[in-house]
Amino acid sequence: MTLNLAGLALAAANYSLVVNGQVAGKPAVVMNGEPYVPLSALKLLGVTGTVKGNTLTLAIGSARAPTPAAGGANQMTALEGCINQTLFNGIWRVKVVSLDPLSSSDTWSPNTPGWAVKLEVRNGTQKTTSLMNTGFGASSGGSQPALILADGSTLTLNDSDFLKPWSQDVLQGGVNTFTLRFSYPGGTTAGQARALKPSKLILQINGKLPSYSEVKYSIPDPSLRVNLSCKK
After folding, report:
1. Most Cβ neighbours (<10 Å): which of 70, 106, 193, 215?
2. Helix, strand, or coil here: 190?
3. Any idea what the Cα angle at residue 185 is, between residues 184 and 191, rounded to 5°?
4. Whole-angstrom Cα distance, residue 106 to residue 112?
5. DSSP-assigned letters across all residues of 128-169
6. What pLDDT was estimated at residue 61?
7. Which among 169, 171, 196, 170 has a CA at the least distance from the CA of 182?
8. Would you say 62 and 49 are in contact if contact means Cβ atoms under 8 Å apart?
9. Is 53 left (phi over 0), alpha (psi -120 to 50) or beta?
10. Nearest 5 degrees, angle CA 211-CA 216-CA 217?
11. Which pLDDT tens digit goes with each residue over 17-75?
């Protein structure tokens, strides 16, 4: 079921839909030149719909939008999406390009398995900037990228993989593509690694930027969470 949004002239067949900073499970579609939004997306805004016969009745206020659960990084509010889906928070257009298993993820521990996450990060502003200067990383109050397993535990990031892209300036409209390696705890066997795969990648960002940065995020929480079990 969809609700017509009159007055917008859009040409594409469908659009990714973001509701209150969250990527909706279904896209907005265009019919006869007009966009339509899924009822499931409206429910995130507290709109309920009931069907009786050939009549769809919408109401506001009888349902409340879901509140994110309080807790650790795996439960924080964030812009969400899937592998190969671009997420835009007003400064960065971020896409997880691939997720690949590694038989050896650490030069110093050649028998330690892990995962390689390839990221594409584009500068969506009109100013040259870097991840370091826009709230990424411990120095700005956030944290390093986190690869979360299905049981909620976190793999160890190879710090050197993140240091260069974190500090690298990216021109306006430019792209920074890099790969991050994450390791299981020492002693983890290949079989154990296959049985416990990553479920989410979290990029936590401190959105409170100083005025001299001359850029700002377009959503209250610019952090990004990628569901690694789905792909666009």
Report:
1. 193
2. helix
3. 60
4. 7
5. -B-SGGGTBSGGGTS---EEEETTS-BPEE-HHHHHHHHH--
6. 52
7. 196
8. no
9. left
10. 150
11. 777 656 666 787 877 777 887 877 777 676 777 787 778 787 765 434 444 333 343 44
CA atoms within 13 A on the CB side of 187: 0
Domains and CATH numbers, the chain: 2-60 (no CATH), 73-231 (2.60.40.1240)
Antiparallel, parallel or unpaired: β 2-4 and 34-38: antiparallel
Is residue 30 within 8 A of residue 63, CB to CB? The reply is no
C-alpha 148, offset from chain centre = 13
Query: Two tokens at 67?
Result: 């509140």
Query: H/E element holding 191?
Result: helix 190-195
Residue 172 and residue 126 in contact, taking contact as beta carbons nearer than 8 Å: yes
What span, in angstroms and rounded, lies between the C-alpha atoms of 145 and 73? 11
Return the number of other C-beta atoms located less than 10 Å from residue 27's C-beta.
19
Backbone φ, ψ for residue 142 (5° rounding): -95, -150
What are the backbone dihedrals phi and psi of residue 212, each rounded to the nearest 5 degrees, phi first? -70, -10
pTM of the model as a whole: 0.66
Q: Is 86 exposed, middle or buried (0-12, 13-18, 19+ CB in 10 A)?
A: middle
Beta strand 22-23 pairing with 79-83 = unpaired
What one-character DSSP code corresponds to residue 59?
A: E
pLDDT tens digits for 133-178? 999 875 444 578 999 998 899 998 988 899 999 999 999 999 999 9
